[in-house]
């Protein structure tokens, strides 16, 4: 029973983390002050092509997978197929959560927009906490950051900053070319880039250990019992 229960806990936490993450991104979209660097390209595609954010999220992640293939100079079929499945799931969640968030009152003043933005920062951080704690495969964008780190011999934090900066620049260029505005880029993008890491760090310090104990408790117990035999 434990062997089945533990992976289900991790899988549940992983899927819940992705759902909460998408909910946070949807709040940032509704705020209208710019989305986080991770979602900036997908939202730029959505604004310029008139497609749903779910579809453009999948398209952006396909692009991230293609870049991984180019940098790795080889095709890891199983890994990329799994990343693609995750991208489709996250894309579905994006459409679903944006529909839910759009049922809320539209922010019409800068104060309400800022409230929505602050809410999005904490929700995104909560989603990332569950997503990372589950220790399941990364989404294409996060996997690409690891590839950039390994390919160019950068520490992960610098690779993360580089990936985010390039993503934001491309998203901004796409919006400027097609809709003549920054579109998906704004003060909310800068706020997300700066504060999400800090909020996530605080959450990890206070909540990750008890969360890991709940998720991995049975797994550790099972391991101990097997060793004792």
Helix and strand arrangement:
Blueprint: H1 2-31, H2 37-49, H3 53-72, H4 77-101, H5 110-133, H6 140-151, H7 156-179, H8 187-228
Question: Could you write a compact summary of the structure shown?
Answer:
This protein has 229 residues and is an all-alpha fold.
Distinct helical segment count: 8
H and E string: HHHHHHHH
- Output mean pLDDT: 88
Structural class: mainly alpha
Rounded to an integer in angstroms, the radius of gyration calculated over CA atoms is 19 Å
Shape: globular
Helix coverage percent: over 70%
**Main sheet attributes: strand count, strand direction, barrel closure:** none
Description:
By secondary structure, this protein is mainly α. It is built from eight helices and no strands. It has helices at 2-31, 37-49, 53-72, 77-101, 110-133, 140-151, 156-179, 187-228. Helix 1 (2-31) crosses helix 4 (77-101) and helix 3 packs parallel to helix 6 (140-151). The longest helix is centred in the C-terminal third of the chain and has 42 residues, at 187-228. The relative contact order is 0.18.
